[in-house]
Specification:
Oligomer: single chain
CATH topology of one domain: Rossmann fold
Helix content: 40-55%
Number of helices: 9
Distance between the termini: 39 Å
Strand order of the largest sheet: 2-3-1-4-7
CATH class of one domain: Alpha Beta
Largest sheet: 5 strands, parallel
Number of strands: 7
């Protein structure tokens, strides 16, 4: 770890001011649930910055735990090398580990977990042991047909990452990057067939999680078909109440 003496003063002051601003924010433990393309990835950085939360994406956490060679990371690596799925208990343990970081002091946003009711139950058990619970579940509700239009219309310029959409943000020349004139490509996942199977999995496995948390009275349904700025306003209303 770098010595504080080596950290530029501007960076240190910026971080101190950020922590000072964060100290007055209420703690929040949030879950974002929604099908692929519903806008979770657009809203989570905004929520994270506004409420000083840490963003816990299970895939990233697993990779970090494996890289850091934590006891749980070593277990996860062994499981993945056998081609098996990492158990729910192991994932919850890695979330528990990640939540102890200073950046998670004010709470967290969980994205991509829990995907099933049994994962939600295990997560709640772990939080109960710490004397905390999930404060809000943001349900990014959107019709499947809108998602198909959103996702299958996405095109990217591979080397720069610039994204276009045939309907919402088309390039000047169809199939061509505005800046370089190079051809655009579609991600393998951005096809109707892949989306269909991902949506089926979402409806079958993850929608019951919304019902599970609805019974606890913590679900807020968001109109995810609206433009991103309007969804941000809806999120702020929900989280400030």
């Amino acid at each position: 770890m770098a010595s504080l003496e080596d950290v530029p003063s501007v960076d240190m002051m910026t971080e101190l001011l950020r922590r000072f601003k964060c100290s007055s924010k209420p703690d929040k433990r949030l879950i974002l649930i929604g099908p692929p393309g519903s806008g979770k990835g657009t809203q989570s950085p905004i929520i994270k910055d506004e409420y000083c939360l840490c963003h816990l994406a299970t895939g990233d956490m697993l990779r970090a735990a494996v890289a850091a060679k934590t006891p749980l990371g070593i277990k996860a690596k062994e499981t993945m090398e056998k081609g098996e799925l990492v158990s729910d208990d192991l994932v919850v343990g890695i979330i528990d580990e990640a939540m102890k970081k200073p950046s998670c002091q004010k709470g967290f946003i969980l994205d991509g977990f829990p995907r099933t009711v049994s994962q939600a139950e295990k997560l709640d058990e772990m939080l109960a042991k710490q004397g905390t619970k999930i404060d809000k579940v943001l349900d990014f509700a959107i019709d499947d047909s809108i998602l198909e239009e959103r996702i299958t219309g996405r095109w990217i310029h591979a080397s720069s990452g610039r994204t276009y959409h045939t309907k919402f943000a088309p390039p000047k020349v169809p199939g061509i990057d505005d800046v370089t004139g190079e051809p655009l490509m579609q991600r393998k996942d951005d096809t109707a067939a892949v989306l269909k199977s991902r949506l089926e999995a979402f409806h079958r496995q993850t929608e019951p999680v919304i019902d599970y948390y609805s019974k606890k009275g913590v679900v807020a349904k968001l109109p995810a078909e609206k433009p991103p700025k309007e969804v941000t306003v809806e999120v702020q209303k929900v989280l400030s109440s």
